[in-house]
Amino acid sequence: MRIGELARATGETVKTIRYWSDLGLLDATRDPGSGYRRYGAHATERVRFLRSAQRLGLALADVKELLRARDVGSAPPCKEALALLRDRRDEVRRRIASLRALDRELTARLTRAATTTTVPCDRDCVHLVDAPSALAEGSRLPPSRTPAR
Q: What is the pLDDT of residue 135?
């Protein structure tokens, strides 16, 4: 099937399928007459596998290794996949803990600002510079994703 047909069959974009093909995650042959990419019968299954792995936050390099093991016919890559899922879960849990610490820090600063009327606002903004407990102890908080203005 051609790339547009594969995109329609899987709900992916042509751009995504082309990207995965360029990375070697999907096998495509070129039609000698037209130059169009042609995908085999198992391409839809592979695209769904790729999308699922990406939804879970797995790196494409790791997914490529899983697919390579599967393609060479060695044992199913379930053991390796489970190890990747455990690592990803641990990473997510660390990120959640970090975000909870950030939430506590932001809440403390906002509470202090709301209950303190005598603190003058200076050019360094005391609400940003003042280092309460979590920051003073050197906790690593995730960077803000808010763009600078």
A: 45
**Going by C-beta distance under 8 Å and a sequence separation of 6 or more, which residues neighbour residue 78?**
none
Predicted confidence (pLDDT) per residue in 80-124, tens digit:
899 999 999 999 999 999 999 999 999 998 888 888 766 667 666
Tokens 């050197």: give the residue.
138
Residue 103: count of CB within 10 angstroms of its CB:
11
Neighbour tally for 6: CB within 10 Å: 23
Q: How many CB atoms lie within 10 A of CB 121?
A: 9
End-to-end CA, the chain: 48
Contact (CB, 8 A) for 65 and 80: yes
- Confidence check: pLDDT of 131 > 60: no
| Rounded-to-integer distance, Cα 46 and Cα 119, Å | 60
Contact 21, 28 (CB under 8 A): yes
Is 110 in a helix, a strand, or coil? Answer: helix
Burial grade of 34 (CB within 10 A; 0-12, 13-18, 19 or more): exposed
